[in-house]
Predict the structure.
Amino acid sequence: MSVNTCHFSARKSGAMKVQSVRGMNDIFEPSMMLWHRIEETLRRVYGAFGYGEIRTPIVESTSLFSRGVGSDSDIVEKEMYTFLDRNGDSLSLRPEGTASVARAVIEHGLMNENPTLKLYYLGAMFRHERPQKGRYRQFHQYGIELLGVETPQADTEIMSCHHVLYQELKLKDVELRLSSIGCDVCRPKYKALLTAKLIPLESQLPADFQKKIHTNPQRIFDHKDEKIKELASSLPLILDHLCSECQTHFEKVQTGLTNLNVPFTVDPKIVRGIDYYYRTAFEFTSNHLGAQSAVGGGGRYDKLFEELGGKPTPGVGYAGGLERLVMLLEAQDLKLSERVDFFFVCPDEGGFLKAQSICHELRIRSVRADMELQTKSMKAQMKRAGKVNSRFAVIIGSQEVEKGVAVVRNMDTQAQEEISLEKLLAHLMKIKV
Ligand code: HAM
């Protein structure tokens, strides 16, 4: 993917060049083709699973995220792009999609007539993180939310849908990791137990983690430091402390996945960085993403709607980063070889009008056809035909017009044939891909 790392560059003399903001990328061809293929595939798969699109604003009231995502979360504490607008209202660029979807559903009463609502979204999100491979300040998420269903079957559907998506995209080595983080009954007891175990170890913990011992002790399992990982390995795990309802729910999710042949690994150390999760938590991961191993993450969030002032509404969902999919597919060398079918080459002006009209007829029929729009040498035009990766060059000059033919050259084999101008359009339609 095209990623620009430097954001300022002073010319030796003259004005400072304006460059993109650090961690925010331009996307262009050939990566763009992969973006399109991914977007088309996910719209098709989401459609097949019964999800309809929702688009919410990029800017929301800051309180939506402090209440929804959680004021103790890293996202709200340190990563949001927050500003006062001209009225003095605190607004933020959305760091994720779930809170916005919940807000929109509550605001428009979208569930008044639909006890079950299935929504998907695709769009830019913003987090002020330290940029690195796979981690940006503006990135794009695709995701789905299934609202109104509290059964484990709903959790299974979210995961199986993305299993299908990744298979459709031919993504290799993606693993589903599954856990439960408990509910209002078992989680507080587990947290208290973990806090009690961590207090005597406080002096061995990094300063930035000490506050979390009391607020979010599970984050210890998420720590990147090897020494802390070692220390965490002897701590109690939530899966050994689930209440019976959570335990049953968790088992049924696993049965559902097995029933649909969706492979998974139970990983009791999954910690989601957002506060709204409840019971099921999961991630799709890949070893090919470097430090950022998460292809995407999700889970159940049965208390979020109440947190935002709505009626109690169970929900479960998932979101993944589009840039990470592009990275993985590019690394697999699954670059799209989307090609121009025909490039028209005019050795002189005599063939130009004929070439332009056939090129136009092909485009009307959605065939990828292109041509040079200014006088260039034959050599330069053939070079361009190669550069745009066309399958065929269609050569029409005054000589050809006089003979009533065009020369159609296969750019891969260099074989060429003369086709009468009368039959040219029909012939090209036959040999297009
Ligand atoms: P999340 O785990 O914060 O969950 O983000 C989901 C995915 O977005 C990550 O796994 C990653 O692929 C991508 N992502 C996050 N931050 C960045 C970044 N800075 N640069 C590139 N990609 C990034 C959520 O956002 C939840 N809303 C998911 C969800 C939906 N849960 C329930 N429904």
